[in-house]
Fold:
Amino acid sequence: MLLLFTGGRGSGKSTIARALYATFDAANYDYVHQSTWRAQANNVYRKVGRIIYFLTFFRLRVCKVFLERLYRDIQHGRAKGSLGRIYMPCVFSYHLQRLSQNKERCVVYDSDFLTWAADKVLDGAFNPSEVRDFYACVVMPRVGNIVVVVCDTPVEDAVERWRLRDDKILSSNEVRQWIEKRTAWKQAREEVVEIVSTVSGVTVMRLNGSDTPDENAYRIMKLLQKEK
Structure:
């Protein structure tokens, strides 16, 4: 099973995920998440070694969409490139292989690996077939089933959380502009989620990000128990 969180900055993805991992641990639920390997790489040499190892799992059909998104983000000045955005698609590919070989029961990604095509919605270049084919033909055969967790937090609340978390000092006008931007991105992600939801084997659950992390973690756990 592959569990993918989606949501904008400040929507609660990481916070809910941490509560979910604590719930998993308490229940002795067998899982790994996208950064489990970091705990094993307790010095810089081991971390570099692990990254090099993950790079051997580069598979064009898996990694291409994420690297193309990175290129578009750099090209349009939406985000800076980082080493993580180069090697994490290979980590994702590694986890897909582990699931396909039944070496993992559940893999969780709490950063948004789902809506890599959301920018194309905003740019008027969205191709629903590209998204559907990626999940139906590339991901699903390797993982068996996918649970999509949408952190559906009101945009105003998400922007305020992000501002406080990152210690951003914004004028009221800047806050309004950020809310407008985040609203557009949220709508774009929704279009992608709608397409992914049509793929056989995909379950979409929506969480109210204003609820407590423990409440939302409990809801996810109950769903996963039904998905067995």
Observations:
- The first helix runs from residue 13 to 26.
- The CA atoms of residues 128 and 142 lie 21 Å apart.
